[in-house]
Automatic annotation (TrEMBL):
It is found in: Membrane. GO terms for biological process: cell-cell adhesion. It is a single-pass type I membrane protein. GO terms for molecular function: integrin binding. It comes from the Eukaryota. Residues 115-217, 222-298, 392-489, 501-576, 657-738 form the Ig-like domain. GO terms for cellular component: membrane. SUPFAM superfamilies: Immunoglobulin. PROSITE patterns: IG_LIKE. This is Hemicentin-1. Belongs to the immunoglobulin superfamily. ICAM family. PANTHER family: INTERCELLULAR ADHESION MOLECULE (PTHR13771), INTERCELLULAR ADHESION MOLECULE 5 (PTHR13771:SF9). The chain crosses the membrane at residues 748-771.
Length: 794
């Protein structure tokens, strides 16, 4: 047999160790110092100490990976050097409790490497006044990645934080964080940077690795600093002149100058013209990758001392329309004057005015000039600036044969402008719906009609499906042109975008009433997709029968799967089916008196019904404990928002036997007749019996619910205790009657003693039964230690 001291020792060990020989944290006898290691990979080794609270053990040792250190006995502390050149090192300190069991404690070792950060910027798209950028922050060679936090900053404000969920990889890895931003033109220049930080809080902070700052801005097509797209400049013949053309745009535009059809090969905002002679028309075009814009400058060169004046000196004429220009002189020493032209010319006429007139101008580059011959034989000439224009025969948009578009891909739309002149004055504007998305101009100096085209590249979105695109061709002919620039608009092109289906406007939760049909009317969900998707609803993994009404058992999660040729998606809605109250209770219940009140008949319904009790037509409050007089008929009324239900039941209150009279002593004379009666009030009626010492002159009879003992001519043998026991299924009660017979004392004494002993035996029996029943109620408990130490002989 184990000694008390040894048994106590094993109980202590059991309390310190669980079944897997790993000590629970609250009882682990091992302490590590430091409790964890967080150091940079490749650093100097760290020494860890392990101490035990057990004075008696079979030895302590470390396991490092698959290697085990020497077991050290009779010491309460050991040390181990930990190398920081292993990313996946595992270290345990262990103490042997006996030959078969031990406790251990893990040392958490985190070896880290600070990251390098590389930040890159990619321009994605330009839509209207906004430019989309994709910023990428590459975190290079960092470990462990689960502790990395990446923060994005816009100017000086933190706008996004990202972490990584990889808790298994401990070696260095590369990760990336993506930030997509839209920069408006009003924001001008915005600075972005990213920071990557190893965060071991609350243990120790780490200095962040910070990227370079990148400055981004909104891109937009060139725009002239002045609103006029045409200018008139005047100069004297033989002087030097500088023409100016300034535009803004991002990226900065490049410039190209063309004068009278000749490329001037200048990439500056100004063009120098030395010692000019004759009128010129110069076009300056500013271009970047988003478009271009052209400014036309009409240079009027007046001869020195020229006696001629043209009215008008510059004119814009629609091809086929009439035109006339007067040429006048104010000098008197004139021989004559006239117009030289391929058509509409005049002869040598008398001053002061001569007119060039054409009823139908059908020449694209008319070049008339007015001359005057002075009396000294010298001659002076002047030429008007004439622009002949023609609106396009047609303007149309085509998809270049690709047909339907797919969401997320890029496509080109082409605007064809047929037979327009002069093309250098043409502006093509693209519209998506009513929004202007692109403007194109042209550098071609050809004055005769040509065909021009403009291309719009779009990154398709599902919102574009059914949207119209159109282009407008407009001739900007300057201040001498028509008040409203002539334009022609293409018929609308309606985009067809194919995209994966989805459900929109779906609520998370819907409440319906029982027997309602499952239909679109109970849900606001709408399926969207192109091609139009099919919709199939599922409940508990099975296809839903929409013709079957919903019942109270159909509450739960309903899933819709929408599918077309582009893919499929699903969405879920939780449907709660509510229903009116109902009862499924019995009509008769038995309740034990003094039992705590509990709802014996609960209605079902949703929302949960309000239950009201009625007795004898009056509303009542349910008692805390049932009483004997609570038996009777009850009406239960249940109500919720969907209706009312009633149920009638009868409650029968059960109670254990109760005697009208308590214990008593009765004294009679020897030879008298004696009657002892016993009855009890109970529900259900009690089973009554007498416990006493029978005699030849005693008899037990039953009258109704009474048990009666009749003793004829009582003698000393009838003296003693008479016990009445009343019992039903609820409980038991006893009543004692002491019968004393007057007469010979000695004859009475021995039967009394015998009766007392009988009563004592009965009492002890009742006590044994009582404690036996109590033991069953409380249960039997065996104490079992936390840790079963197998293979130990006790």
């Amino acid at each position: 047999m184990l000694s008390v001291r040894m048994l106590s020792f094993f109980i202590l060990i059991f309390s310190l160790c669980d079944a897997d020989s790993i000590c629970p944290p609250e009882h682990n006898p091992l302490t590590l110092s430091p409790p964890e290691i967080i150091e940079e990979y490749g650093g100097n080794p760290v020494t860890v100490n392990c101490t035990t609270a057990l004075a008696e053990h079979k030895g302590m040792y470390f396991t490092v990976g698959n290697e085990t250190s020497r077991i050290i006995e009779k010491q309460m502390s050991i040390s181990q050097s930990v190398s920081l050149s292993d990313w996946n090192v595992t270290i345990k300190c262990k103490v042997k409790l006996n030959e078969f069991n031990e406790c251990s404690k893990d040392l958490q070792v985190i070896t880290f490497k600070n990251p390098e950060v590389v930040h890159s910027v990619q321009l994605v798209n330009v839509i209207g006044e906004e430019t989309q950028y994709r910023l990428q922050c590459d975190i290079i060679n960092v470990a462990p990645v689960q502790y990395v936090n990446v923060s994005w900053y816009k100017n000086s404000e933190k706008i996004q934080t990202e972490s990584f969920n990889d808790t298994t990889t401990k070696t260095p890895v590369n990760e990336s964080s993506i930030l997509r931003v839209n920069i408006s033109r009003e924001e001008n220049v915005v600075e972005f940077r990213c920071e990557a930080q190893l965060d071991f809080r609350p243990h120790r902070p780490k200095l962040p690795a910070i990227s370079k700052t990148h400055r981004v801005s909104a891109h937009y097509a060139p725009e002239l600093k002045t609103q006029n797209s045409a200018d008139d400049t005047y100069a004297l013949e033989g002087t030097d002149i500088i023409l100016s053309c300034e535009a803004v745009g991002n990226p900065l535009p490049v410039y190209n100058w063309i004068c009278d059809g000749k490329n001037m090969l200048e990439n500056t905002t100004s063009l120098s013209l030395p010692r000019v002679h004759g009128n010129k028309t110069c076009a300056c075009t500013a271009t970047n990758y988003l478009g271009n814009i052209t400014k036309t400058i009409h240079l009027h060169v007046e001869p020195r001392g020229c006696p001629l004046t043209l009215t008008p000196s510059e004119t814009v004429v629609k091809f086929g329309d009439p035109v006339s220009i007067n040429c006048s002189t104010s000098v008197t020493d004139v021989e004559g004057m006239g117009w030289e032209a391929p058509f509409g010319g005049t002869g040598f006429e008398r001053p002061p005015v001569v007119t060039w007139r054409v009823e139908k101008l059908e020449e694209w580059t008319p070049s008339p000039f007015c001359y005057v011959t002075l009396v000294d034989g010298s001659q002076r000439t002047v030429s008007p600036v004439i622009t002949v224009y023609k609106t396009p025969d047609s303007v149309s948009v085509s998809d270049m044969g690709h047909g339907s578009m797919v969401e997320g891909r890029e496509y080109d739309l082409k605007c064809d402008v047929i037979n327009v002149a002069p093309v250098q004055n043409l502006t093509v504007t693209w519209y998506r719906g009513n929004e202007t998305v692109k403007t194109d101009t042209f550098n071609d100096s050809t004055m005769t009609p040509v065909n021009a085209s403009s291309t719009l590249r779009i990154s398709t979105q599902r919102d574009y499906n059914g949207l119209t695109f159109r282009c407008e061709a407009e001739l900007h002919l300057g201040p001498k042109g028509p008040k409203f620039p002539p334009n022609v608009t293409s018929p609308p092109y309606t985009a067809v975008v194919l995209y994966k289906p989805f459900m929109e406007s779906c609520p998370d939760h819907v409440t319906v009433v029982e027997n309602a049909a499952f239909s679109k009317s109970i849900l606001s969900c709408q399926a969207d997709g192109n091609p139009p998707p099919t919709v199939q609803w599922f409940y508990e993994g099975k296809i839903l029968n929409s013709s079957k009404p919903l019942t109270r058992t159909d509450s739960g999660k309903y899933t819709a799967i929408v599918e077309n040729s582009r893919g499929r998606s699903n969405t879920s809605v939780h449907i709660t089916v509510e229903y009116s109250p109902s009862f499924t209770c019995k009509e008769h219940y038995e309740i034990t008196v003094n039992d705590k009140h509990q709802s014996i008949c609960e209605p079902v319904g949703l929302p949960t019904p309000t239950l009201t009790w009625f007795k004898d037509g009056k509303q009542m409050v349910s008692p805390q404990r049932w009483k004997k007089n609570d038996s009777g008929k009850y009406l239960l009324n249940a109500h919720n928002t969907h209706g009312t239900a009633e149920h009638t039941l009868y409650l029968e209150i059960l109670y254990s036997p109760e005697f009208k009279n308590g214990n008593e002593s009765k004294q009679v004379l020897q030879g008298e007749d004696v009657t002892l009666s016993c009855s009890a009030d109970s529900n259900p009626p009690s089973n009554i019996r007498w416990v006493y010492t029978p005699a030849v002159n005693s008899n037990v009879t039953t009258e109704g619910h009474q048990k009666i003992i009749t003793i004829t001519r009582a003698t000393s043998t009838n003296a003693g205790f008479y016990i009445c026991v009343a019992e039903n299924k609820v409980g038991r009660n006893t009543r004692f009657v002491t019968l004393m017979i007057k007469g010979n004392t000695s004859k009475v004494l021995f039967p009394a003693i015998w009766a007392f002993l009988t009563l004592l035996i009965i009492g002890l029996t009742l006590l044994v039964v009582y404690f036996h029943n109590r033991q069953k109620k409380r249960g039997q408990y065996n104490f079992v230690p936390e840790c079963q130490m197998s293979n130990i002989a006790i």
